[in-house]
Amino acid sequence: MEVRGAGKAYLSAGSTVNALADMTLALRAGELTGIVGPSGSGKTTFLMIAGLLEPPSTGAVLFRGQPIADARTRLNSLRDFRRTHVGFIFQKANLIPFLTAVENVQIALEINDVRPKAARAKARDLLARFGLEQRENNYPTQLSGGEQQRVSIARALANDPVLLLADEPTAALDGARGRQVMQEFRKLADERQVAVCVVTHDPRWSDIFDRIVEMSDGRMTTVRPGGAPTAPVEL
Ligand SMILES: Nc1ncnc2c1ncn2[C@@H]1O[C@H](COP(=O)(O)OP(=O)(O)OP(=O)(O)O)[C@@H](O)[C@H]1O
Ligand SMILES: [Mg+2]
């Protein structure tokens, strides 16, 4: 998925906020990209545009080289595409409160016409991958913040997305759980060629990323390779 020359202006309280300005970034299959930057620098806005949840105000979004969204696109028309291609992990877990953990994951599959029994089995597998086998029948209020976040990660993976966008997925997790989630993302990129993009404030994961994009004031300021810290490349 490529975001090309994208800007995003929000009108709020009569004034315009330029949340994103002329951002160009391609998220490629098999690549794990980290996005860092201060609060309000446009990280979530970028994910929303790359994940086709918001149209850009200017510029365009391309999928496999073909234009898929611009300012005129009605995003409802992309709902099916999103459902089958994109996994989104929001800054807040956003679970459905009246469904249990396993049902929250299961419903993502059933929406895509997976039969209930198969959906249940896959949902349970996914929860087990994140150490939640003992929690699958709990409702969101009966889960800790970190557990809720892990359910939302399992849900984002339910339909085997080719693009996975995660907004601070490890913020509510302790170090070991956080690393486990990041390693799961690494594996998805390596073994299934998923394009993964993760917003994070956490410097502990920088070794896991292929590259780290820094944002400031709605712009991409530097891109540097992940792994051991190196000098950033000025854009
Ligand atoms: N729906 C909206 N309406 C008006 N302004 C918005 C809206 N969404 C975001 N903004 C503004 O756009 C700017 C970028 O917001 P964004 O959520 O992308 O930042 P962020 O980098 O994700 O920050 P954080 O690290 O705090 O999550 C901010 O100034 C924010 O107030
Ligand atoms: Mg944000």
UniProtKB/TrEMBL annotation:
Residues 1-235 form the ABC transporter domain. It comes from the Bacteria. GO terms for cellular component: plasma membrane. GO terms for molecular function: ATP binding; ATP hydrolysis activity; transmembrane transporter activity. Keywords: ATP-binding, Nucleotide-binding, Transport. SMART domains: AAA (SM00382). It holds the Pfam family ABC_tran. The keyword Hydrolase does not apply. PROSITE patterns: ABC_TRANSPORTER_1 (PS00211), ABC_TRANSPORTER_2 (PS50893). SUPFAM superfamilies: P-loop containing nucleoside triphosphate hydrolases. Belongs to the ABC transporter superfamily. PANTHER family: ABC TRANSPORTER ABCH.1, IMPORT ATP-BINDING PROTEIN. This is ABC transporter ATP-binding protein. It comes from Xanthobacter dioxanivorans.
